[in-house]
């Protein structure tokens, strides 16, 4: 759970990161980029690993993401999104591009380790370790466990709603209604924060 | 006049925001929808904020990365950036003024896909942009004002995104940015609005019931 002091620190951390990204965009500020790199490069790599990207690939893709941040930072608008949100979309897109290329290049072998779930279950409280995303954690905390589980599988493992149904061995309609309920609640919760 | 836009089931937005859509055609369809619909954009904004939260909470680890920020800056200096859009060849057959969303235009440019209009029925033209392994198709529909497409059903599902103009299905009006999701077995009774030409991006998954040939069903179309 989030404590008051964490909240203060995380709010200023969010502002600091947004400021760094803004500086990279406006001034091509190398020091701001190095600070952003220190914060985000390990997280992007770990995010990709959780999405079953092999470690060597994850290194390459993390570099692609960081290069894209450096090159596209001028399109970042701190009024619209946090640095983490903006970087998330870049990491996701780099991952999709890679995935689509693999799909095009060969008939995908479903037993390829890249497409198998990790052997170790992921911690359920992943989102609770967040510092800068306390509003997301707060919003998640208000959801029933079955809805949290669906969002966690979607965001951390990148599973589609039908893959989530398979993983949880529940009907597709059940996943759809959990997503609908969760999103209704999140729309209310995140509305104020944004 | 405000009208609530027609949007899709929430799972479409979730899969788009997490990068879990099954095909590039679905990516293009959703990105185009999000570009044109404020309702869709708001959903994606909320979900991407969530994605940012999950990224932020990803384990930062303690091990050294095998590359540094300065490696990235060196690479930036050594590698030319991908050419800007202006430098790329324009999509073939895209006449000026055709209201294509950026996401679709990018896709056409990147894949070198031509937009070639063909006859679909009286007052109707189509341009197939992509055909998938399982018979899925991404295509453009261009309809003259007032054209009616009488009752028809679908085998498989179909997403239809309005890019320009509007159409009615029964008493529901679909405006630019709106998407209609037609499920298998659902009957449609479509009328193109009298006010002007209507252009839609459609993604057909599985086969239309009247698929072989597609024209067969359209032979019963009435004109204006």
How does this structure look, described?
The complex is a heterodimer of chains A (194) and B (224). Chain A is mostly helical. Helix content of chain A is 70%, strand content 0%. In chain A, α3 crosses α4, α5 crosses α8 and α7 packs across α8. Chain A is globular and about 50 Å long. Chain A starts with a helix and ends with a helix. With 224 residues, chain B is an alpha+beta fold. Helices cover 29% and strands 25% of the residues of chain B. Chain B is built from six helices and ten strands; from the N terminus they run αααααββββββββββα. Chain B has a six-stranded antiparallel β-sheet with strand order 1-2-3-10-5-8, with helices on one face. In chain B, a hairpin with a 5-residue loop joins β2 and β3. In chain B, α2 packs across α3. At the A-B interface, α2, α3, α4, α5 and α6 of A face α1, α3 and α4 of B.
Which labels suit this protein?
heterodimer, A: 194 residues, mainly alpha, B: 224 residues, alpha+beta, four-stranded antiparallel β-sheet, 10 strands, 29% helix, disordered C terminus
Describe how the helices and strands are arranged:
The complex is a heterodimer of chains A (194) and B (224).
Chain A: H1 4-27, H2 30-50, H3 55-72, H4 83-105, H5 134-141, H6 145-156, H7 161-168, H8 172-193
Helix pairs in contact in A: 1-2, 2-3, 3-4, 5-8, 6-8, 7-8
Chain B: H1 10-18, H2 24-36, H3 38-56, H4 69-78, H5 102-111, E1 118-121, E2 124-131, E3 137-143, E4 148-152, E5 157-164, E6 167-169, E7 172-174, E8 179-182, E9 188-192, E10 198-205, H6 215-218
Antiparallel strand pairs in B: 1-2, 2-3, 3-10, 4-9, 5-8, 5-10, 6-7, 6-9
